[in-house]
Amino acid sequence: MRDSRGMTRRQALGIGGALGLVAATGLTSAAALARRPSATGAELRSAVPLPPPFQVPLPIPAALKPVGTSGGADRYEVTQREATAEILPGLKTPLWTYNGTFPGPTIESRRGRPITVTHRNELPVPTVVHLHGGRTPAASDGYPTDLVLPEGWREAPMRMGSGSEQSTHGSDMSMQMGHDSGHGTQDANAAMRMGDDSGQGMNDPRAVVTKLTRDYTFPLDQRPTLLWYHDHRMDFTAPAIWRGLAGLHIVRDDAEDALGLPAGPRELPLMITDRAFAADGGLAYPSLDPTLRERPGVREPYLAGVLGDVILVNGAPWPVHEVDAARYRLRILNASNARHYELEAVTDDGRSLDLVQIGADQGLLAAPVTHKVLPIAPAERYDVVVDFAGVPIGGRVRVVNRLGSGRTRDVMAFRVARKATDDSRVPGTLSTDLPAWRRSDAVRVREFAFRAGQMNSGHGWVIGGLPFDPARADVTTRLGDVEVWRLIADVHHPVHLHLVGFRVLSRRGRAPLAHDAGLKDTVSLRPGEAVEIITRFDGYRGRYLFHCHNAEHEDMGMMANLEIV
Ligand code: C2O
Ligand code: CU
Ligand code: CU
Q1: How confident is the model at residue 85 (pLDDT cuts 50, 70, 90)?
Q2: What is the C-alpha to C-alpha distance for residues 39 and 304, in angstroms, rounded to an integer?
Q3: Is 387's pLDDT higher than 70?
Q4: How far is Cα of residue 13 from the mean position of the Cα atoms in its chain?
C-alpha cells in the first residue's frame, strides 16, 4: 500500500506532475500547497542488491592536518582525484574525491583565523571549489566560471577566453554542443549563444581560470557553524557532487566551546546524501554526457532532480553508531542533490526523541527550539542535541525520513551501548549576537520567482524568467545595505545566498516555521510558497551568486548574480 502510493507519488514528481500541479492544472497556490508532493525529482533505482540497514558503522571523516602555518594562517592541501571506495559491502565504487575519500576530509578552523587551501585538480574535467556558508572574498568564493583546469585540458585556450569569439575552435565547439543537444541551432551566432549558455562560461571575460592548482583563502571572520565545501563548476555541479566532491568544514570559537554542549566523541557530523548504484558498482547518474566534459544536463525523467534509492550518512549506507546513554550533538547536513528529508528519531517502542535544535545554517540560535520532526532541504544544516539517556541499554534509535518510502524511509540508527556520566548541558541562552534586522531597516524589497522555464530552447529552471548568465548583473546592491527579498516557488526550491546569512521573515504571509529560526543561508521554499527573507549585504564587495540548491535545478539555469558594490 505504502509502496504503491510511493510509486505514484514518485511518478508525480517529474516536471509533468510537480509542475502540472501549479501550472497546467491551474490549481491555486493554496490548493497546490495543500496537495504538495513530498519531493521534487525522480528516483533512480540501483541495479545491485542493497544491504540490510544498520550494519555498517558510521564513518567519521578525518580532520585534515595543516601542512604549515605562516603569519597566523594555516595552509592546507587538497588533491581532487579519482578513487575507489567500498560503499556497498563487496562492491567497488569509483568516485571523484577530495584527497581520496567521500566525504572529503573535514577542515576544522577557528573563527577569525584565516586559512588557505591549495586545491590541485587531478580529475579529468575542470573544477571549482565553493565553501558553502563561508563569508569569503569573491576571489575565493568559487564562482562557477573560475575554473581550475586539469593537466592537458584540450579546450583550455578557449575556456580561458582568449579570443574564443572569433576562433574556429570556439565555434566548432559551440556548434558541436548545439548539435549534440539536439536544439537544431541554425547559425553560428545561435551556436555561440549556446556556447555562452551551456559551455561552462567559456566566454565569461571576468572568469579567473587557473591551470592545475588554485589557492583559496578563507578569512573565516564569521559565526561558528558547520559549513561544507563542494564543486561549483558551471553546468556540472550536480553530477560532480554526486560523484563525491563534497566535504565538511567546521568553524569553532571560544564562546561556543564554553557553553558546555556535548563535545568530543559526543559531537557527530552527519552528512546525509542519497545515491544509486549501477550493476558494475559505480554510481548511477542520468547524465547526457557521462564524461561530464562537454554537454551538461540529465535525461528527461530527471529534469526536476535526481534522487537515489540508497541513503548514505558520511558516505556509508544506512549506518549504525554505538552511543552512550547521554546527550549527543548531531551536526546534520543534507548534501543530497534534490532529496528532502523529514527526520525523526524513533525508539524501539515507537517513541520519538526530542530533537533539540541549537543551531541553523549560520550558527547558534538565540535559544534552543525543540522539534519532534525536522525537515531538511538540500544544503541546509541543523545543529541538534539528542539525549539517549532515557533509552534502555541495548536499545536502538532509528533516524527515519518521514518523506521516504520503502528503503528511503530509513536513514541511520544509534545503538545505546552503555550507561555513562554526562556533564554536558544545553544552556537556555545559546548566543546573543544574532542580527535582529527589522523590516523597516530594509532600503529595498526585491521579488524573485523560482520556476520552470526555458533554457537553450529546452527545459530549464529560471529565476525571474531568466536562466543563469554570468554576464548579466541580476542584483546589484551596496555594501552594507539591508534588503528584504520575497522568494516565490512553483515546486520545491531550496534557495541559497552566497556570502551572507539571512533571517526568515515570513512564509505565505504568516510567521516563519519553528525550524526557520536563527541565521540561515539556505531556505526551503515549498510548492506554491512565498517566503520573505531579510539580510544585510556586508563582508566583501564583488561578484557572488544566489541560486536554487536543488543541484539539478542549479545546473539547468536556476542561478543568478549578486553583485556587491
Ligand atoms: Cu552550496 Cu552556491 O552553493
Ligand atoms: Cu554557497
Ligand atoms: Cu529549484
Answers
A1: very high
A2: 10
A3: yes
A4: 20
With a 6 Å cutoff on the Cβ, whether 243 touches ligand 1 is: no
229, 132 contact by CB (below 8 A): yes
Residue 17: which pLDDT band, with cuts at 50, 70 and 90?
A: very low
Residue type at 82 in one-letter notation: E
CA of 219 to the centre of ligand 2 (A): 15
- Say yes or no: CB of residue 130 within 6 Å of ligand 1: yes
State the CATH architecture for 439-564: Sandwich (2.60)
Average pLDDT, stretch 139-168?
Answer: 69
Q: Is the CB of 545 under 6 A from ligand 1?
A: yes
pTM for the predicted model, two decimal places: 0.89
Name, in order, each residue with C-beta under 8 angstroms of 71's C-beta and a sequence gap of 6 or more. Answer: none
381 lines ligand 1 (CB under 6 A): no
Q: Is the CB of 129 under 6 A from ligand 1?
A: no
Q: Is residue 190's pLDDT more than 70? A: no
* C-alpha of residue 308 to centroid of ligand 2, in Å: 23
Across 389-479, the runs of DSSP E, i.e. the strands, are 396-401, 410-418, 444-455, 458-463, 475-477
Distance, CA of 349 to CA of 416 (rounded, Å): 14
> Does 368 have pLDDT greater than 80?
yes
* Contact between 233 and 135 (Cβ < 8 Å): no
Question: Are the C-beta atoms of residues 437 and 503 closer than 8 Å to each other?
Answer: yes
**pLDDT, tens digit (0-9, with 9 covering 90-100), for 520-539:** 999 999 999 999 999 999 99
CA dist., res. 78 & res. 120, Å (int):
6
In angstroms, the CA 324 to CA 278 distance is: 37
**Closest C-alpha to ligand 1, atom 3:** 132
Give dist(CA 511, CA 519) in Å, integer. 16
